[in-house]
Give the backbone structure.
Amino acid sequence: MKAMELLEVFFKTIEHFYPKFNMEWLGKIPDPRNPNMITYKIQMLLLGGIFLFSFKLRSRRNLKFKLHNETFLATLSEWLKREGVLSEDEAKESKSFPHGDTLEYLLERLDPKYLGEILAKMNERLIRMRALEKYRLFNRYYTIAIDATWELRFNHEHCTQCLRMKVGEDREGQPKYIYYHPVLEAKLVTPNGLALSIATEFIENIIVNENDNFEKQKQDCELRAFYRLAPKIKKAFPQLNICLVLDGLYAGKPVFDICEKYNWKRIITFKEGSMPATYEEFETLKKLSPENYAYKEEENGTVQRFHWVNEIDYEGHKLNVLECRESTIEKSCRFVWLTDFTINSLTFEEIAKGGRIRWKIENEGFNMQKNGGYELEHAYSLNQTAIKNFYFLLQIAHILNQLMEKGSLLKEKLLKIFGSIKNFTAALYQAFISCVFHFNAGFFARRIQIRFSFDSS
């Protein structure tokens, strides 16, 4: 695939899915900098942050070293001129790319909510286009996985908002701690491997007023963050049919209450330790309901045995439990889920599919962002506000990359030509610095379709 073809994939993907990305979205973010001291427009700086992650440049300083390139600047100026961001004269005068410190200066002062809103708009646009419609559970519900991950960690207290965890003792017997910044992430996940960030809640220490004149630092946690995150999701997507797919930490009445309040469906990993009495009741009722059973054998020899029980009472809620025992030639495993979907011979497979798709947030989401070149756990800044903004820029870049990698403009050629997704992003960077892309009058005139494959095989 030629460099020019790769650039076509990049620009056509953004134009197709997000035609208002530069002017209407990035351009309307309030610029917190002194207007008399601005050299680079906010769109160019934020695009620089997105390129930092899209090209997997790995450190902030590489913005200057790897993007201060005459060819890259010519293409970028052409694009921003076409978008109305730069005038003809401004495009001609654009001879340098901003330093990473210039980007950090902006992100230290920018309210993170604005980049969070961009993420919500990106997903809303995909949903309105019906680009993800065929991946809905029961042809109705978008599956949203929620889980926490560590973003940054330190051996010392980095700031008052750091959480801390004891990891042992030193030679004098004094406790040793690590200090870390976790984040609770909601991602829209699909069977073909998309994991799109739709909402984020940073897990950080909270200062609470216990009396009128006394303040105390309160250690935050994943569940408290969920109670703050849920209203954000509802506000951003008030009419969306949602099924939350959650791990065993969320098996409890407060989460059930929130799901019912917002009219969300749920599939939650069920572990014996989280609700022991209910778990024991399921084991007993399962033996008394032999008719609630299904058997499946795949062509590859995988055998699945399903058991289920409906309407187990739990503190005012009716819970349904599905068990799947899976055996292959190599190993056997067992999955159990809590749900409010009624389980029967017509629904058990779809519920199991929804339960197992939760792993997409770990594999295609967190693991890719940590180990796939995005360097999620790298400290792009030590400023708490900038840390959050860099996190959002990473999520935006990851969405754009996924739309290219999974989209029909590239999907068939990706592994055949590049061998891996990592090689594709390297080739995209090389395309930007090796040839100037010219936007002729008819480039975006013809309407195109970008489709996604149904599964990740």
